[in-house]
Specification:
This protein is mostly helical and 433 residues long. The chain has helices spanning 6-32, 34-41, 45-72, 75-92, 99-108, 115-124, 133-140, 142-161, 163-184, 213-216, 221-250, 256-287, 291-312, 318-331, 336-346, 352-367, 370-381, 383-428.
Length: 433
């Protein structure tokens, strides 16, 4: 079976980009209206951080379940189901009038927070290895575009009509996108874009995931170091996502309009940073199989430096803070698409969703505590200190781990290419006709 045309592949990538952008917007809007939530339920930063942490913990528990299902069954159908769950759990979260009820229903919104693993796996089967970085960068940019959309609707709708009305709208978008994905996206056989399998008929039942495969993935050296860097690497993202808008309002003394303006600039810049990171990774990967790991190492070291400078900048210099934040916003997301592409470069097609979910387990297992830790530090020393301390320390660790990854990844890439050549020989021999 021939691989899909790149024109059609990009159309699918754009649809999935829209789905995940709106999904991330639904996740992010609570950060924008957190001041309303804190005031309505009379809770401290610690309780607010605990709310995000608990939601993330539920997502972590379900990561291997979603990953296995994505590798076993129709990815199009499962992404659509996730959209329906997103919609109904967000609507449910608007009902409680006590913090306990809000806490419980908010945790339930974590059930559907795992579709990226299926989306990334599907994208990898639409694009060949040397062209995956850019579309995966586009999918990676959904964190920024989702935050951008979430910030706009959060301020425009949430602060005008209240957070409950806002949640009704973002939940409705989940139902809408579920229908669009189901009608417009087509599943393709796993492994369709592998160059060794080009033009061959693929019968997926020959190469189906087994549940025990999930637990042996981490034995692969590349997956081990990708997972370890993921454990530390998302600490800053969770911290910044949860608290940066509140930080600007309460410590930088920004008005809601000023904070929105800064966020718009930064989030738009992050979209370009994601795409640029994927493009640079593709270019270096074409020259050396260590290319994506090299990009990751350079980016996270620079991220630690730039976030330190930005958060240390004088409060009275609004323009300088905004410009530094823009530079930082371009650099921060560049490692992401190279991490995901490295997974696709090293594991066989039928376990890629599970591999991405495994990475997410490591990411969220560590980072789920980040909002709580940042909230604790904020109560003691201020939000700026909490965000800066967590971000710089964890990204330095990530830089070291990416450096080790650059040493070990060539062997795993070579092993995957050998496996694909063996499968091609089987297919050419007529075993699957």
């Amino acid at each position: 079976m021939s691989s899909p045309s790149l024109k059609n592949a990009w159309l699918i990538a754009i649809i999935l980009f829209l789905f995940q952008s709106l999904h991330n917007a639904d996740i992010y809007v609570i950060s924008v209206v957190f001041p309303q939530v804190l005031d309505e339920f009379q809770i401290t930063y610690v309780y607010g951080g605990a709310l995000i942490t608990a939601t993330t913990v539920l997502s972590v528990v379900l990561f291997p379940v979603w990953g296995y299902l994505f590798d076993r069954y129709s990815r199009r159908l499962l992404i659509s189901v996730a959209g329906v769950i997103w919609g109904f759990t967000t609507w449910l979260n608007t009902l409680p009038r006590s913090f306990l009820g809000f806490f419980v229903t908010r945790i339930l919104t974590g059930i559907d927070n795992t579709p990226p693993s299926g989306i990334e796996s599907l994208i990898s089967d639409y694009f060949p290895p040397k062209k995956r970085g850019k579309p995966l960068g586009l999918i990676g940019a959904t964190g920024a575009t989702g935050a951008l959309i979430g910030t706009i609707v959060g301020v425009v709708i949430g602060y005008a009509y209240g957070w409950r009305y806002l949640f009704l709208i973002t939940g409705g978008l989940g139902i809408l996108m579920a229908v669009i994905v189901y009608l417009a996206v087509k599943d393709v056989p796993r492994g369709s874009s592998e160059p060794e399998l080009s033009g061959l008929k693929i019968r997926e039942e020959l190469y189906k995931i087994r549940f025990r495969d999930i637990f042996v993935l981490v034995k692969k050296p590349s997956m081990l170091f990708l997972s370890l860097q993921g454990f530390f690497g998302v600490f800053p993202w969770m911290t910044l996502q949860t608290w940066v808008f509140t930080y600007m309002l309460r410590e930088r003394m920004f008005s809601e309009t000023m904070a929105l303006f800064a966020m718009l600039i930064w989030l738009i810049t992050m979209v370009f940073g994601n795409f640029a990171g994927g493009a640079i990774g593709d270019a270096l990967f074409s020259r050396t199989v260590r290319g994506r790991a090299i990009v990751g190492a350079v980016v996270v070291f620079l991220s630690a430096l730039t976030i330190y400078i930005t958060l240390s900048w004088p409060v009275e210099d609004v323009a300088g803070f905004t410009v530094l934040g823009t530079v930082t916003s371009f650099i921060l997301p560049m490692a992401g698409p190279n991490v995901v592409a490295s997974i696709m470069d090293t594991v066989q097609p039928e376990v890629r969703s599970s591999a991405a979910s495994l990475l997410s387990i490591f990411e969220s297992a560590g980072s789920s505590t980040a909002p709580l830790i940042a909230g604790y530090l904020a109560d003691l020393y201020g939000l700026g200190f909490g965000m800066m301390y967590i971000s710089t320390s964890t990204w330095i660790v990530c830089g070291v781990l990416f450096t080790v990854l650059a040493v070990v990844i060539p062997r795993d890439i070579s092993e995957l290419r050998r496996m694909m050549r063996e499968r091609a020989d089987q297919l050419k021999g007529g075993d699957t006709i």
